[in-house]
């Protein structure tokens, strides 16, 4: 495994020997519980986020032992370039970095969202890449100690898959990105996408513990994370769609990423969506009754533990009672924090989520998959990949305020950028565009609902990024004429 320090290494296409094939499909244990399902009212989004943060801060109070931090190979190219700082996409091609952790400690009186006062701290090397092994007692980092997102001098180090397959499609996103003045220095075609047992080590924990979830392991319970992650078999090839093609085949892999935006209501693009090689959906992907607008096929389903449980709770009576099913459907789990690892633990134990951050959800996680799930189709997104998407594509100004801890890109944004790294050609449907005010929040809304801009997401930034990707021909973004309106 290697880590990247220079952004101009994004075009590297080094190929190493492929990993040995893994064993047979792994399945989850048989059902052991059958408790009745009760209806629970939905909690306010901000309250959920606050509870999640508080829960994560309470984890891992056990005393730390002395640990030996082993060095990782240094990148021989040169010193690292500055890290991204500006949240405006137009300036992402001019990444800037400052050494060390840049955020100051948070004072007890800080209650409002104000720009963080920063000071330069002595540069801190990555625990996984220290030039000399050292033995020391490690102090556990806490998000509450920072007035804004801490920035480390190893912020732009990402795990790379040096066995990543190259594309044979001349019109591929990867080829276009390598020629784009904007993307050529920030797009990493061979970044590690998935977290599994083969990529979870003590040195990786030490490094990623500096970043708050979902971008790292800060404040998480190491025992819990290790217990669930090590159950997942190694992903043999990160570029799993390219790996599925016959050797030498030059077909361009086409993907449709379907968001849940109201712009799709009465759009009649369902057949167009289904014509792609692969179809990505997320969260409350209601299909019944909307086939003409959103299609019927599903190849990838993206979710967080919270988005899935909320979708089943709110949309269960509308037909969304479980995830999209099928022997070829792959599941992309974006790990937000403690509740996602608790979800995985309950899934493996085939138990309910009692005594967890999702205790109000009375189903067993396995019920959402109808008790038949192969682990080789259940994929965990790597924290490095999520941090890379945040740093280089969707770095919001919120990260420079006291509310930095609750910010993350929307699940739809993470799914779209994931498809951008798996597919050759990407079409995006149901995402925020200019003129979004004309449409309801979701395509399945029975009455018109205004899209609310919550502080934990940056919808304006995402709208700007999608438009620019569309204008540069990197993706195709579905947009409707100004005169076109939905039924709602």
Layout of strands and helices, then pairs:
Elements: E1 2-3, H1 45-57, E2 67-69, E3 134-136, E4 159-160, H2 173-179, E5 194-195, H3 202-208, H4 222-229, H5 240-243, E6 254-258, H6 270-274, E7 278-282, H7 291-294, E8 300-303, H8 305-315, E9 330-333, H9 338-349, E10 378-381, H10 383-392, H11 411-420, E11 425-429, H12 459-471, E12 476-477
Parallel strand pairs: 6-7, 6-11, 7-8, 8-9, 9-10, 11-12
Antiparallel strand pairs: 1-4, 2-3, 5-10
Helix pairs in contact: 4-9
Textual characterization of the structure:
With 488 residues, the protein is an alpha/beta fold. It is built from twelve helices and twelve strands. The chain has helices spanning 45-57, 173-179, 202-208, 222-229, 240-243, 270-274, 291-294, 305-315, 338-349, 383-392, 411-420, 459-471; strands spanning 2-3, 67-69, 134-136, 159-160, 194-195, 254-258, 278-282, 300-303, 330-333, 378-381, 425-429, 476-477. The chain has an eight-stranded mixed β-sheet. The longest helix is centred in the N-terminal third of the chain and has 13 residues, at 45-57. It is globular, with a radius of gyration of 22 Å.
């Amino acid at each position: 495994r290697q880590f990247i320090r220079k952004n101009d290494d994004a075009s590297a296409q080094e190929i190493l020997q492929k990993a040995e094939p893994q064993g047979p499909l792994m399945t989850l244990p048989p059902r052991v519980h059958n408790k009745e399902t009760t209806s629970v009212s939905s909690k306010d989004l901000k309250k959920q986020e606050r509870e999640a943060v508080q829960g994560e801060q309470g984890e891992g109070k056990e005393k730390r032992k002395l640990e030996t931090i082993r060095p990782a190979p240094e990148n021989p190219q040169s010193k690292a370039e500055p890290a991204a700082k500006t949240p405006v996409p137009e300036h992402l091609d001019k990444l800037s970095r400052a050494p060390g952790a840049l955020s100051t400690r948070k004072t007890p009186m800080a209650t409002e969202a104000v720009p963080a006062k920063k000071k330069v701290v002595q540069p801190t090397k990555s625990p996984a890449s220290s030039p000399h092994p050292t033995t020391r007692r490690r102090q556990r980092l806490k998000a509450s100690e920072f007035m804004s997102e801490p920035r480390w001098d190893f912020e732009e180090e990402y795990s790379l898959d040096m066995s990543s397959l190259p594309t044979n499609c001349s019109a591929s996103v990867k080829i276009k990105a390598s020629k784009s003045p904007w993307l050529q220095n920030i797009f990493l075609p061979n970044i590690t996408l998935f977290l599994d047992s083969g990529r979870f080590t003590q040195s990786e924990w030490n490094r990623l513990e500096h970043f708050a979830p979902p971008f790292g392991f800060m404040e998480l319970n190491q025992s819990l994370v290790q217990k669930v992650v090590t159950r997942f078999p190694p992903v043999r090839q990160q570029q799993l769609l390219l790996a599925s093609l016959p050797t030498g085949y030059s077909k361009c892999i086409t993907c449709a990423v379907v968001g849940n935006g109201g712009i799709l209501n009465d759009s009649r693009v369902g057949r167009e969506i289904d014509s792609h090689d692969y179809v990505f959906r997320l969260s409350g992907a209601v299909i019944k009754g909307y086939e003409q607008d959103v299609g019927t096929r599903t190849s990838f389903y993206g979710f967080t533990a919270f988005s899935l449980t909320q979708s089943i709770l709110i949309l269960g009576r509308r037909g969304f009672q479980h995830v999209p099913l099928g022997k070829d459907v792959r599941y992309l789990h974006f790990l937000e924090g403690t509740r996602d690892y608790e979800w995985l633990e309950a899934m493996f134990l085939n138990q309910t989520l009692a005594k967890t951050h999702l205790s109000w959800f009375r189903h067993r996680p396995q019920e959402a998959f109808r008790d038949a799930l192969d682990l080789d189709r259940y994929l965990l997104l790597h924290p490095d990949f999520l941090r890379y998407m945040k740093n280089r594509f969707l770095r919001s100004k919120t990260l420079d305020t006291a509310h930095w801890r609750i910010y993350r890109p929307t699940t739809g944004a993470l799914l779209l950028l994931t498809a951008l790294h798996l597919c050759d050609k990407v079409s995006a449907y149901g995402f925020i565009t200019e003129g979004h005010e004309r449409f309801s929040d979701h395509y399945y809304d029975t009455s018109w609902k205004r899209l609310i801009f919550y502080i934990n997401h940056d919808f304006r930034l995402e709208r700007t990024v999608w438009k620019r990707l569309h204008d540069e021909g990197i993706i195709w973004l579905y947009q409707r004429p100004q005169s076109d309106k939905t039924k709602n």
